[in-house]
Known about the structure:
Layout lengths: L3 E4 L2 E4 L4 E7 L8 E7 L6 E6 L5 E3 L7 E6 L4 E6 L8 E8 L8 E2 L3 E6 L1
Parallel strand pairs: 2-11
Antiparallel strand pairs: 1-3, 3-8, 4-5, 4-9, 5-6, 7-8, 9-10, 9-11
Amino acid sequence: QVQLVESGGGxxxxxxxxxxxxxxxxxxxxxxxxxxxxxxxxKERELVASITSGGSxxxxxxxxxxxxxxxxxxxxxxxxxxxxxKPEDTAEYYCAARGPxxxxxxxxxxxxxxxxxx
Length: 118
């Protein structure tokens, strides 16, 4: 079982930056792939960024060059640094964990709101 708690959301002007943090419980955090999802009202949920247990990141095209995902296994944490934010980045963001050999993200946090004003 993995419990996830996000923090760091808020209101920011376009062009600004935010850093989201996700603290995970459990001694086997290092074995999990981690992802940041977002969902805006009326839109499909999307996996914005993910990072493997070995530390390899991946991103959707719309955030490449602006967002950076990272993890600190010693702190059981994963982060999402978001720069050059745009109004279209406005959404509820939540982190999720995918266990070894799993195809789906079975654990997720409660989410944190990110609002980017024009």
